[in-house]
Design a protein that fits this description.
CATH topology of one domain: 2-enoyl-CoA Hydratase, Chain A, domain 1
Oligomer: single chain
Strand content: 25-35%
Distance between the termini: 37 Å
Helix content: 10-25%
């Protein structure tokens, strides 16, 4: 979800290939592009050796009690059920039993939707969906210019109903399936805003294309680099922008990670390396309390020495937080905005027979300073809030960044 494209790790077991992912977002977020899914971008391609950390589990489960429920449903249920439907339900339940919102079973249909979303182009409403601490479905960030954004969907909105179906107990996979649909069709969301206001929005689905990198020059000598998600092409596009900024002699850089739900770990490492000499720690991954992998800068250092401000907000998650923390902890950038989302775990995708997938949390990542930011987020060095109901041309956070770089 973390957001993004697929980076495949080498197979390590007979049962399927694995992909490491940084699933973007939410105090419990499987994080999905609303209308597609988000949550995740894939982290890879490096692998973690899986030394089991769960203890007390039997070698195999006794399914006799499950068979009893199956027999009862088969003989008593007044409705239509299929074998695949029941098996998918069992697998979904096993993943949900972990209590971890980032560990999810994807049916073949859901897996297809999940991977379509990774391409950066899909049909939907264009927003990032996650879970809060109370397990509510929440909007992390609508994509600028998307149908969700134009309809007035806002970050932190709780989605209580999708087309009159309650979201209580609904995981992000199911929510995404219900919100997705063909271009031109509509979906109605019942929302709770600011904890008190209840409203309903009907949104027309459309094709959504997400550019991962946007650049421009501000005030003549400040380079502006915005990353919407850490995708397969992000590192190359950002490197090209960095080279141009260097050639143009910019005096400062604004790296805008607001509303960026994350993505590829390798992209985050490459982006961070634009400011860092070779060998600087970007993050470590820990499993069961032990460090299993340390990621360091590759020595690009194109923008090294140029004053930099990184803008973050509550929609900045996963790979965005990795980058922000790496640049701050290595003392090459100042963070501005408001506290980030708080996505500090690492997921891996296990591709199952028939096109299904299992996304499972395998580790937690720590900043160069040794902090895990899961469910806490990263506090900026300078807090700058974005007041509600601003005109589109107003951006106090960006103004503060420019003022800081030109003082």
């Amino acid at each position: 979800m973390d957001q993004s494209y697929v980076a495949r790790a080498k197979p390590r077991r007979r049962r399927g290939n694995f992909i490491k992912v940084s699933t973007i977002i939410a105090c419990g977020l499987g994080i999905f592009w609303l209308g597609v899914g988000v949550g995740s971008g894939k982290i890879g391609p490096d692998s973690i050796y899986h030394k089991p950390v769960a203890s007390g589990l039997p070698k195999n489960l006794d399914y006799s009690s499950v068979e009893e429920i199956y027999d009862e449903l088969k003989s008593s249920y007044d409705g239509q059920l299929t074998r695949s439907q029941l098996l998918d339900g069992i697998k979904t339940g096993l993943a949900q039993a972990t209590g971890d919102p980032y560990t999810e079973y994807f049916s073949p249909k859901a897996a297809k939707q999940f991977n379509e979303q990774l391409s950066g182009s899909f049909s939907g409403i264009g927003a990032v969906l996650g879970k809060d601490k109370a397990n509510n479905l929440v909007v992390i960030s609508p994509i600028a210019g998307s149908p969700a954004d134009k309809a007035g969907l806002k970050a932190a909105d709780i989605i209580s109903e999708i087309n009159k179906t309650s979201t209580i107990g609904m995981n992000t996979d199911e929510a995404v399936s219900r919100i997705r649909g063909d271009v031109g069709t509509k979906v109605t969301l019942k929302l709770i805003r600011a904890g008190v206001q209840t409203l309903s929005l009907t949104i027309t689905r459309d094709n959504i294309t997400i550019p991962s990198v946007t650049t421009k020059t501000l005030d003549g000598n400040i380079g502006y680099l915005q990353i919407s998600q850490f995708s397969e092409d992000t590192a190359e596009l950002a490197a090209q922008a960095a080279t141009k900024f260097k050639q143009d002699g910019v005096k400062g850089i604004v790296l805008d990670l607001r509303g960026d739900p994350g993505g590829l770990l390798n992209s985050a490492v490459s982006i961070s390396s634009l400011w860092l000499p070779k060998g600087k720690t970007i993050l470590t991954e820990r499993r069961g309390g032990s460090t299993v992998k340390t990621f360091t800068s590759d020595g690009t250092n194109t923008l090294g020495g140029i004053p930099t401000v990184v803008l973050i907000d509550g929609g900045s998650a996963s790979a965005s937080e990795i980058t922000a923390a790496a640049l701050r902890d290595n003392k090459v950038a100042t963070l501005m905005g408001v506290t980030s989302f708080g996505k500090g775990s690492v997921q891996e995708i296990n591709k199952l027979p028939g096109g299904a997938e299992l996304k499972v949390t395998i580790a937690h990542w720590f900043t160069p300073a040794g902090k895990n930011i899961d469910k806490q987020g990263i506090k900026p060095d300078k807090e700058v809030k974005q007041p509600k109901d601003l005109a589109e041309v107003q951006d106090p956070q960006l103004d503060a960044a420019k003022a800081f770089l030109t003082k």
